[in-house]
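hey can u run this one w/ 2'-deoxyuridine-5'-monophosphate bound, need the structure tokens asap thx
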Amino acid sequence: MEQLKQQVIACRRCPRLVAWREEIAQTKRRAYRDWTYWGRPVPGFGDPRARLLLVGLAPGAHGANRTGRMFTGDGSGDFLYAALHRAGFASQPTSRSRDDGLQLWDCYITAVARCAPPQNRPTAAEIANCRPFLQQEIALLRRVQVVVALGQVAFNGYLRALQEMGQPLPRLTFRHGAHYPLAELAQRPGLPHLLAAYHPSRQNTQTGRLTAAMYDELFHQVKRLLNP
Ligand code: DU
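ok here u go:
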């Protein structure tokens, strides 16, 4: 896993994303002008023996692209880590920097794209370029029993990664709260439960489309699936 993280951090495969992540790191946001931005691809974070895997979209320009840790330092992360803490998967409710002492318990966080993209939207080709990293994580995280896809792009990207690893999956549709028992659906023991959830972006949480209570229910469902 440590080797994989170093490979991720060194990646320069997508020219548009290399340019964007570095430009953001140079120009910064006024509130963070004293920060040395990470400005590189962001590796996965958490417990390598996790039974719960969260799959996000891509680093936020002034969040993970600034701090170097998934979902760390922006509104999406504030919402997500608070929920993880309430559910007992995170040691503290906030994630502010790589040296803030946060630990994830039984949980690992990754994303379908590792570099901050313009408009928060990686292209299909960029996600495809990044897919081998996700597939290597999936292979290394052998204890995972439940995967939560945060948003439709993560949902489709995770399923595509599994399909390319040889899993014969039917077409599945994204809907917040949907539960797909992949082992049964694909007749492959060992595959995890997949839960679909709205992404914790400000666009969802500030409009009331996604509430803290909805994430509490989501993580209750995760725990029911982990401890049947
Ligand atoms: O050095 P390390 O114990 O491998 O931890 C690296 C990194 O991973 C640290 O920032 C905490 C995080 N982590 C975690 O969140 N949960 C674990 O169970 C183990 C490590």
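The longest helix spans residues 124-140. anyway lmk if its weird
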